[in-house]
Design brief:
By secondary structure, the protein is an alpha/beta fold. The chain is built from 3 helices and 6 strands; from the N terminus they run E-E-H-E-E-H-E-H-E.
Length: 112
């Protein structure tokens, strides 16, 4: 992704974990969408965890992509979770339509 680096790993429980770092801007939108669609439709892990712990900001397009990934996961029988977001980002995700049970381990000491 243009202004963001992303690490992808498989955890011991078989979850695919995507770790973006930095700011998710409009320049990253196509790559983020491609990564998430590939993970859900091709890799098909039991769980896809998007670890937002190192995300310093997110634009509306990428926010919508994360919401869409949750719905795509439902369609493809892949549980999608958004972990370690700041309180502010968790609020944005919730307002955009992400179910609260998908937003886990919210960091209350950090703002986006």
């Amino acid at each position: 992704m243009a202004g963001t680096t992303v690490d992808v790993e498989t955890s011991p429980d078989g979850s695919l974990v995507i770790h973006p770092h930095g700011v998710l801007s409009a320049d990253d939108a196509v790559d983020l969408r491609h990564t998430l669609v590939h993970a859900v439709r091709r890799v098909r892990p039991l769980r896809l965890v998007f670890d937002l712990g190192d995300v310093r900001g997110i634009d509306p397009i990428n926010l919508g992509t994360l919401v869409a990934a949750c719905h795509l996961g439902d369609d493809e029988k892949v549980a999608v979770f958004l972990d370690n977001s700041s309180t502010e980002l968790a609020g944005q995700l919730s307002a955009a339509g992400v179910a609260r049970h998908r937003i886990r381990n919210v960091r209350h000491d950090v703002t986006v």
